[in-house]
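2.7 Reproducibility. Because tokenized structures are sensitive to small changes in the input, we list the exact sequence used for Cytokinin riboside 5'-monophosphate phosphoribohydrolase, including any N-terminal residues retained from the expression construct. No trimming or masking was applied before prediction.
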Amino acid sequence: MKKIAIYCGASKGNDAIYVNEAYQLGKYMAQHGYELVFGAGSVGIMGAIQDGVVDNGGTAIGVMPKMLDEKEITSNKLSELILVDSMHERKNKMAELADAFVMAPGGAGSLEEFFEMYSWAQIGIHQKPIAVFNINGFFEPLQVLIEHMIEEGFIDSKYKQLAPLCHTPESLFETLNRYQPFGVRTYD
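Resulting structure tokens (single pass, no recycling of outputs):
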């Protein structure tokens, strides 16, 4: 496991802890030889993780749709920039490049990108590790929702820990490295 796709926000959030912890995640990745695969943005949580990686000698591979590249939010610090034609191509390219998937704080786009990988794991499209970097308890409401979906019979209980919440870079990478596939979803 070397290349880690991280889905996260282009916003900073309302508390400096989000940017600070995101930077520390990037720093940890660089110091331990992990490469970042991400949306190529220079701002928000995306930019903070990238800065942590690049400032500490790591590799940051950005995948950016041409339409967003024209809006000039693409980072100029990337080790490699891959331009694609659409958001769909971006997600596919990131999934192809990555050995594991992580979600850090962000908005609807981050959730959408991450949950595609979550659902793909359920139906057997990939068997790569996935986890959630839970800065400042950000994803605890999401965990409650997943547990509710399990209780109501919409997600099989074996997937309760498919996307575990991790609070430090160390615990995140321990979780990714210990990952065992959960098996393919069955239908009643």
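The CA atoms of residues 150 and 158 lie 9 Å apart.
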